[in-house]
Design a protein that fits this description.
The chain is an alpha/beta fold. The chain folds into two domains: 2-167 and 353-370, Rossmann fold (3-Layer(aba) Sandwich), CATH 3.40.50; 176-350, 3-Layer(aba) Sandwich (Rossmann fold). The chain has helices at 2-10, 13-16, 27-31, 33-48, 53-63, 75-85, 100-109, 146-154, 180-190, 212-221, 236-248, 263-269, 279-288, 302-313, 326-335, 337-350, 356-370, and strands at residues 89-92, 115-120, 140-143, 162-164, 199-202, 227-231, 254-257, 272-275, 292-295, 317-320. The protein is globular.
């Protein structure tokens, strides 16, 4: 997601002024079948058994399988990619690419010729913040928020090489905010909803895994009637099931959406969003000022724990561990708009000031410094 956002920004009119060519290389998947299998295991755990990730995460933290070039299987594949691209800058957006793969890049391209940078989108330190994010020998560590940079410093990153760069989101998130007229038009024409009533967005991952129906049943059973937008990604079974549920419960407006690429609009129209506490949708909601209900149903993965810690520290919403907790929060917010107003004020306070254009500028500045320009 962040690599794609960086590429998109390089292709904007402002980004093109930097004359930067960006290539994305899926390093883990493209280096060895074992690492591709590891990615699949992670995706399976995320979808079906989040609590199991504590075992997997702690195993990877202790073993440091990718901590040195000599430990990396299939490293010639990565070397071949480097020789094909011949990059001046290598940017990692993944915790396990900052040590052994940086070492290979320097060996292949020359330590004095390549700049190695980490962009970390995590929001807090402590248990759940992987030490693999931090390589004190890298040229720069970019953290999404101040807490990210502070966490990196605890693992030995020199403060002079740590920088808070803000969220690396796609360009539409930085468009002008919706006017009230535009918000009303979107809600009435595209969502077919009432702009004066509470709108709850039920978020999902890219694979569509969710527990939307459980949430809807609990909300309905408590006599609460918010308007609901249910994101289904590419999961057609869930999309069809929610359509059926909506027809059977005409007193509660529920609109399922397949893969949706206008989150920058939807989150501005919503009263609140329920989302797994990953950094992707959470960062989008923070930037656009949408109150967050962190969905911990089924257990939390380590990196989700630190996202919730950030949200709780700054009072950006609430968290739930069971679907039955959701109606209580929704009713409270529907009955007390002042609480939502305060949460929105808190969201504005933590919204990063830097944009991805500032990150592009920082990368170019560092490259020029290393090359004596």
């Amino acid at each position: 997601m962040r690599a794609r956002a960086f590429e998109d920004w390089s292709n904007t009119p402002e980004g093109k002024k930097s004359n930067m060519e960006v290539n994305i290389h899926q390093t883990l998947e493209g280096t060895h079948a074992l690492y591709n299998f590891g990615v699949e295991v992670y995706n399976w755990i995320q979808r079906l058994a989040p609590r199991l990730h504590h075992i997997y995460w702690n195993f990877l933290e202790r073993m440091k399988l990718l901590g040195a070039a000599k430990r990396i299987f299939g490293r010639q594949n990565f070397i071949d990619a480097l020789q094909a691209y011949k990059p001046d800058v290598v940017i990692s957006t993944h915790p396990h690419l900052n040590h052994g793969f940086f070492e290979i890049a320097r060996q292949t391209l020359g330590d004095d010729k390549v700049v190695c940078i980490t962009y970390c989108g995590e929001l807090f330190g402590g248990y759940g913040f992987s030490r693999q994010w931090v390589n004190p020998d890298s040229d720069l560590f970019i953290g999404a928020v101040d807490e990210t940079a502070e966490a990196a410093n605890t693992f030995g990153m020199d403060e002079s090489k740590s920088w808070t760069g803000g969220f690396l989101l796609k360009p539409p998130f930085y468009n002008e905010r919706l006017t009230e007229q535009e918000r009303v038009k979107f809600i009435t024409e595209e969502l077919d909803m009432d702009p004066d009533k509470f709108i709850l967005v039920l978020g999902t991952g890219a694979n569509g895994a969710n527990n939307h129906l459980d949430k809807l049943e609990f909300i309905y059973s408590q006599g609460i009637r918010p308007q609901v937008v249910a994101l289904c990604a590419r999961n057609n079974l869930v999309y069809d099931a929610i359509n059926i549920w909506d027809r059977k419960h005409p007193s509660m407006r529920v609109k399922p959406l397949r893969y949706y690429d206008r989150m920058n609009i939807l989150l501005q129209a919503a009263s609140a969003v329920v989302a797994r506490p990953g950094t992707g949708l959470t960062s989008e909601a923070i930037y656009l000022g949408c109150p967050i209900i962190s969905n911990g149903i089924g257990g939390l993965m380590p990196q989700e724990i630190i996202t919730i810690r950030f949200c709780m520290k700054h009072n950006l919403g609430c968290s739930i561990r069971r679907a039955g907790e959701l109606p209580v929060i929704i009713k409270r917010w529907m009955d007390d708009p002042e609480e939502l107003k305060q949460i929105r004020a808190n969201l504005r306070k933590v919204r990063p000031q830097h944009t991805p254009l500032n990150i592009l500028e920082k990368v170019i500045e560092l490259h020029n410094q290393k090359n004596g320009r």
